Amino acid sequence: MKKILIQLDTDPQPSVFDRVVAVDADVDQLFSYAGVTPETVEPLVHGAIFTRGGKDLAQTAIFIGGSNVSAGEALLKKVVRTFFGPMRVSVIMDSNGSNTTAAAAVLSARKHLSLAGAQAVVLAGTGPVGLRAAQLLAAEGARVRVGSRSLERAVQTCDELRRTITPAGAELAPCATATRAELEAACRGAQVVIAAGAAGVELLPADLRKSLSSLKVAIDLNAVPPAGIAGIAVFDKAVEHDGVVCYGAVGVGGLKMKIHKAALRKLFESNDQVLDTPGIYKIGESLV
Fold first, then answer.
1. Residue 157: other Cβ atoms inside 10 A
2. CATH number of 4-93
3. What is the largest CA-CA distance in the chain?
4. Does residue 53 contact residue 61 with C-beta atoms inside 8 Å?
5. Rounded CA gap, 109 and 137, in Å?
6. Which residues, 6+ apart, have CB-to-CB distance to 54 below 8 Å?
7. Averaged over 92-105, what is the pLDDT?
8. Which residue ranges make up each domain of the chain?
9. How many angstroms separate the CA atoms of 134 and 158, rounded?
10. Same fold, 4-93 and 102-252
11. Which of 65, 184, 186, 249 is most exposed by smallest CB count within 10 Å?
12. Which phi and psi angles does 180 have, rounded to 5°?
């Protein structure tokens, strides 16, 4: 029985990146569909669950991708609602690499210090990767400051995390970072800083980074110059700068790719898995 992965992409063209990773993860057949929405996905799911039966359903799986993470989340909800009883296949959502990247970033930080009780700051923490990094840091017991240029958005993100996905009792604090004074306050006492901002936007200047005497690990997930954290090179992987262990986007990317491939292989172990942020992180834990 061949392993079939059904790629449901919310963009006009299915992601070539995700297709290549699927091939490298030993998928036998890859079916790719573009422009998929919750309104159009049901027949595709039915095609996945009605063609094989019993244990053979484990040899079919669904990958949800695309550049719009909110659209991917909506699609995941609809896919899961379409399943019924034993008629289901395993599914993973990793739109824009949000889950695998966040998992790789947090696991990279965890290599160098215990996150339990650590003060962590996620800059651009209201975006898809930043939100998930904050979620995973909080699940590890870190005290997390969620930074954003808009305090209102930071408050909304913290409320969402507390209400829906973060463990009860997690310490989450919204922080504005629009001004130098706000950024200094947000980063004061931080042991971990993860920058998850848009491409080419500097979030943490070099002089401020160097002034953070408590800082142990700094991770910049931006691969496009200028760096999100000034002074960190895109290929840095556990490289020390001014006494701080630093990772750039490509430095984190190797682990992100391992997690992505391992998660795809995991799908074919059973037909009842739904791999979102916690499930993907757990797979990452097994790799480090």
1. 24
2. 3.40.50.10280
3. 61
4. no
5. 10
6. none
7. 97
8. 4-93, 102-252
9. 9
10. yes
11. 184
12. -60, -45
Instruction: Tell the residue number behind the tokens 């975006």, with chain if given.
Output: 127
The predicted structure's pLDDT at residue 170: 87
The answer for residues whose C-beta is within 8 angstroms of residue 81's C-beta and 6 or more apart is none
Torsion sign across C-alpha atoms 155, 161, 163, 168: negative
Which CATH architecture is the domain 102-252 placed in? 3-Layer(aba) Sandwich (3.40)
CB neighbours of residue 9 within 10 Å: 25
With tokens 């200047």, the residue in question is 205
Using pLDDT thresholds of 50, 70 and 90, give the confidence band for residue 200.
confident
pTM here?
Answer: 0.95
Q: Are 105 and 83 in contact (CB under 8 A)?
A: no
